[in-house]
Design goal:
Distance between the termini: 13 Å
């Protein structure tokens, strides 16, 4: 049995047509399935929780939607051991499928789901901030400029217009340029560690490193290589290595940061001064004052104390 969670309103209207094509393929292949349509923001989380409670030994759960719907579903799963996740993309950014080489073409994606050949388990991240409810992410979470852009993209008229032209991913680039020059620098103390036990030392034999950033523009904790419409923040990030790959922009003037944006988009920023690469299983962040935090491109809140961890081999994919 396949269970589908469908967001028909995604992709500026394209999602409804995608779901129609999927249903035709399921019928033509005599596939038994049940479909649940989302009706409001957060509904996919509720549906995933209900599906997780079903008595099936193995649950094949398929998301028809974008990165936001995928994130809602992941946060609704209560028993990862019994669920295999498939994705048929309808979003504008589609960083999840791009990072995992999942077909963008609807027909190819359905064929892969109905005939999975690889048993792939990937890591997911988990973030807690200011005592709020923890939230999982599959792509990335971050604070600063990329989070501000994600927050504004959710209500952006520009995004809706570009989606109609099938170039919605450009929204993030345009909003990045606009907000770079208006945002305030962030002061942060960040501890990167591989051990479950936090260390008090700034540099420790267990791999703990503590950094003080005085003029931070953004910190992105990546599980997949790219976010924000395929911007390769950490092109070397792997989804199954048991750690998060962080990119920090700090100590860069805004004009110089602007001039280096093409290098970032072109994945040529590895040796650019002011871009810092760190790998860790746990990332602990203390901010001088609250800043915007996103989780898989969704606004989490304005927070000042953030704990991020990698949950290794948590999610099984169809």
């Amino acid at each position: 049995m396949y269970y589908f969670i469908v967001n028909r309103t995604g992709g500026s209207g394209r999602a409804a047509g995608t779901w129609h094509k999927v249903r035709m393929m399921l019928r033509n292949n005599n596939i038994e399935y049940k479909a649940f349509l989302t009706k409001y923001e957060g509904h996919a989380t509720v549906l995933a929780k209900n599906i997780s409670k079903l008595p099936d030994d193995e649950i094949k759960l398929v998301v028809v939607g974008g990165d936001g719907t995928i994130n809602e579903v992941i946060n609704g799963i209560t028993d990862f051991s019994r669920i295999s996740l498939g994705v048929i993309a309808t979003g504008s950014a589609n960083d999840f499928i791009n990072g995992l080489d999942i077909p963008r073409d609807t027909e190819d994606a359905v064929k892969r789901i109905l005939d999975p050949r690889d048993d792939l388990k990937i890591d997911i991240g988990r973030v807690t901030a200011d005592g709020r409810r923890p939230r999982y992410f599959a792509i990335s979470c971050g604070m600063g400029l990329d989070a501000i852009v994600c927050k504004k993209a959710q209500t952006s008229k520009l995004k809706r217009m570009l989606n109609r032209l099938n170039i919605g991913s450009l929204t993030y680039v345009v909003l990045t340029v606009i907000n770079l020059f208006t945002m305030e620098y962030i002061k942060a103390r960040v501890r990167y560690r591989m051990s479950d036990e936090p260390s008090n030392a700034d540099y420790n034999s267990d791999g703990t490193v503590t950094e003080n950033y005085e003029k931070l523009i953004f910190l992105a904790a990546m599980n997949l290589p790219a976010e924000g419409g395929n911007v390769p923040m950490r092109p070397d990030a792997l989804p199954d290595d048991g750690k998060l790959s962080a990119l920090v922009a700090d100590g860069i003037s805004k004009p110089r940061a602007f001039l280096n944006l093409p290098r970032l988009v072109a994945s040529k920023h590895q040796n650019v001064k002011g871009f810092h690469f760190e790998d860790a299983k746990y990332i602990d962040v203390q901010l001088a004052k609250p800043a915007v935090l996103h989780v898989d491109g969704e606004y989490y809140g304005d927070v000042s104390s953030i704990s991020i961890e990698c949950c290794a081999n948590q999610l099984k994919l169809l």
